[in-house]
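OP here, attaching both records as promised.
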Amino acid sequence: MRVRPGAGRDRVGGRYDGPHGPALVIAVGAPAVDGKATEAVRRALAAALGVRPAAVTLKIGATSRDKVFAVAGDVAGDVAGRLAELRDGSP
């Protein structure tokens, strides 16, 4: 994920072509202070994927704009498809 903190509104969707390949863009209104943006991203990602926020955990990137999250449960196929739609801008 590529995080854009301090955005005017929360938005999940779009593609960022970073050094590690394509990533989903998540913009949140929360500032990048004391983990507020990371928590807002976790909740926005959970809502976009249709899972409980508790099912989404940060794995890498606590202080970086580039983050890796894990989604718990038996949702791999659903999540992969939904992430592709969000990243590529499909409805």
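Record two, same layout:
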Amino acid sequence: MNLSDGALFTGLPMWANPDWRGTFYPSHMSMRDSLSEYAGWFSAVEGNTTFYSGAPSVNTIRLWRDAAPAHFKFCFKLPSAFTHDARLTNVDDGIDEFIDRIAPLEERLGPVMVQLPRNFGEAEMDRLHHLLDRWPSHIGCSVEPRDPILFAKGAVEKNFNRLLITYNTDRVMLDTRALFSTPANNDSGLSVAQSEKPRRPLHVISTGLHPIIRFIGHSDMAINHQCFTPWIEQLCLWITQGKSPFLFVHTPDNRHAPTLARALLQRLAEHLPNHSILPDNTEFPAERQHSLF
């Protein structure tokens, strides 16, 4: 395969997860050290924290910048105070302050993700237009639609996609096929995830240079691999076109997200031999530690 200059960025929804001690992280590692360990395996992170708690402090941003390598990308979510509470109304000043706060990450700053409410449709699209029209050109932006009308393949969705293309803004693709492939039954983690995530069709479309996939997995790894198979060809295609997609991997309670992500990356690496998808050492830090005893 003749690959161009496109790159693949991969990661998880967060890096500081105490549940990963003893599996992904060494058993007694402090979460203060987790970012540097995480960045040894993955090249990006969703950064969901900002969706709930807003912009980190100036000092925190500085610490994150120093802990992550230059190629690493933080893809923060725009706070829900702007997208869900205010529904993008009268939020210009607040968004400017948010962007100013995270701007010191410089080259480590990936596309900011704008997750729209589940009922944010045609009537409010002018607010999204306003947001994108004033978005700083030096910072990437991506939008995750959730209103059913934006998946109906009608005029509203076509206009939405045209808007994103006009502003070189990426459409975030939430892939929940695996998550909803079976009833939850007695799997409490699966049940909670199915109640929290919207069940929407998967529309595979690239409206910018950084297509973003949020792959929400199942408890059954065989189902995950089956649902992921078509993504291998699609990701390779985008990379050959010079695009740099982002792949973020989730599992129902995210306890097994690192393990699933590693398995999927190993499959991708077989099709992208000229790209550094996997680190030189293919064992998680906890596995390397365990091998010493």
